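Weekly modeling sync, notes
Attendees: AB, CL, MP (scribe)

Item 1: holo prediction request
CL wants a bound-state model with 6-O-phosphono-beta-D-glucopyranose before deciding which constructs to order. AB pointed out that an apo prediction alone won't tell us much about the pocket. Agreed to run with the ligand included and paste results into these notes for async review.

Input as submitted:
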Amino acid sequence: NVLSATNIVIFGATGDLAKRKLFPAFYNLFIDGRMPENFNIIALGRSDHNDEYFRNYIKVNLEAFSRKNVTPEHWEAFQSHITYFQHQLDEENSYKNLNRKLLEFDSGFGVRGNRLFYLSIGPNFISTISNHIKNASLASEPDKDRIIIEKPFGYNKQSAIELNQLLSETFEEKQIYRIDHYLGKETVQNILAFRFGNSIFEPLWNHRHIESVQITVAEEVGVETRGSFYEQTGALRDMVQNHLLQILCMVAMEAPASLESDEIRDRKVDVLKSIRRIPADKVDHYAVRGQYGKGIINGVETKAYREEDGVDPDSNTETFVAAKFYIDNERWQNVPFYVRTGKKMKEKQSYISIQFKPLPHSTFSDTNPLSANRLIINIQPLMDIRLQFMTKKQGLSMALRPVEMIFDYFACKEDTPEVYETLLQDALEGDLTLFMRSDQVEEAWDVVTTIQEDWANKKAIFPNYEAGSWGPKESFDLVERQGHNWL
Ligand code: BG6
């Protein structure tokens, strides 16, 4: 393994993300021989625990959340890399002590190791930590030291600009890894392979042949224990500004000249810049918001959003968004990109649907209506690509029917790595491709700014969709007005 010796410092190591995602990802990478030969995971937390206690806690969680089994041999080898370190986020001394710890580990490596700081904490602490890291010179080597930051990255364009500015006082852009975990999904990464690794799709991938594009990320879960966080966030900030716009970029971007990370990120920024901004007085025409009321999901009664813990009984926060975007460039002139996402929907289902234009003239009789071709990229939980086309029905007459040709990931019997395995491995290797650059984040905020402002200023009539449905009626109107349908 060629990876340099690395000290991985996790802020918020006793939190949910660390136990469910980060430690399992490191453990699975370790078993696959993908961790550096020399590494330490330094888990920071406020409480006074010893290593033994913390390692046991991690073991129990690995047993619950790891993709691969926790065998005694693997665990024995892995656990020795974990150190618990008591730390207060806002105390200078804590960072001085951390520095000493890092130097101690470096002398064990025999070299100044790389440093990977993972901020698995609420967004309010980013500035405090970043400043302390600067003051204690913890990330003084731009070629070796990196910081990983979770979303939400700001809460609007202005705050994102300020956050980027603040981080730039401690880190160079190439040291900053802003996570959008959707980019680590196998099915999302495959869009690049599918589009640019084949010769037959790309010639059709434009306004001459494509009628509309749909991106749906529907969730069955509600806000669970995150009510008070979600109250300040809402679906537009939580899902559209990041995950949905990133998927849209993958579908719409021009071919990058190479797989170099800035090249790919440049092409995505081109798309974000070309998205037509929604005029402030036309938000209702382009975007729909919803909030779930009571309903039934899988036969079980479920409460309304306004009844969830931590939620205002008169809340104006949206749990559903549908929007229509246009991309003003040569390729996508007048092709609507419909996006929608919601919580407590009928089913968990994320997909991209590319609707091709109907034939200009049909050779077949009226009794043989033709369905226009459609390509469906299922992101999750189905993971497949389906091409829908017309065929002849077996029989004596010339009757047609639509059929599907399917590529199914699960048929390949290959292990699918967890998203965080992909992202953490990339961060260890210094590959920024799947992470958000500052301008990507800012442009994406810019795209949703007028919607944010309009919705903040107007009280919605909520709840307007039943839990367990496909969202408010207005979401259907949005696409049907143009003669289209949600899949
Ligand atoms: C997160 C959002 O970014 O993505 C959550 O904050 C959402 O609200 C989650 O549930 C969905 O991710 P996934 O990978 O389960 O589709």
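Recorded for review: The chain has a mean pLDDT of 96.
Action items: CL to compare against the apo run; MP to circulate these notes.
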